[in-house]
Amino acid sequence: MVSNPQARGLYAISVAAELLGTGQQNLRLYERKGLLAPGRTEGGTRRYSEQDLVTLRRIAELLSLGLNLSGIRLVLVLEKENETLRTQLGDQAPDPGETPRQIRKKTDAVAHQ
Questions:
Q1: Please, are residues 15 and 45 in contact by the beta-carbon 8 Å criterion?
Q2: Which of 11, 25, 60, 107 would bridge 16 by S-S if both were Cys, CB 3.0 to 4.6 A apart?
Q3: What is this structure's pTM?
Q4: How many other C-beta atoms can be found within 10 angstroms of the C-beta atom of residue 106?
Q5: 18-48 core/surface letters (b: 16 or more CB in 10 A; e: else)
Q6: CA 4, CA 21: separation in Å to the nearest integer?
Q7: DSSP for residue 47
């Protein structure tokens, strides 16, 4: 059982494509390019979760800004790393008196835990 309800695959590819206003081939391409990995049923049917739809909307947004799929993959990876670091730091805002070097040292320490 999936513990995060947002990660549970609910939508078939046709429904996800319709909800997003895109084609099924685009969703397959994004998966091939490593931009997302929807869940699969035992029979191999793709099932898109709410979180997958959030990612697909972000992909559409980045495409509209002119990024190619390689650039989008990089942005998604960096955003995920940033989210992980923020979680590890407890969403602490930097002290206004901290220098960029001090902030970098703190984030490096957390990243290497």
A1: no
A2: 11
A3: 0.73
A4: 16
A5: eebebeeeebeebeeeebbebeeeeeeebbb
A6: 26
A7: E
91 conformational bin, left if phi > 0, alpha if psi -120 to 50, beta if neither: left
Among all chains, which residue has been given the structure tokens 């602490």? 92
Residue holding tokens 């070097």?
101
Q: What's the sign of the alpha-carbon dihedral 29, 84, 16, 3?
A: positive
Place of tokens 């970098």: 104
Diameter over CA atoms, the chain: 56
Rounded to an integer, what distance in angstroms lies between the CA atom of residue 74 and that of residue 54?
Answer: 17
pLDDT tens, the chain, 113 aa long = 445 655 677 999 999 999 999 999 999 999 999 999 999 999 999 999 999 999 999 999 999 999 999 999 999 999 999 999 888 887 666 677 777 787 777 777 766 76
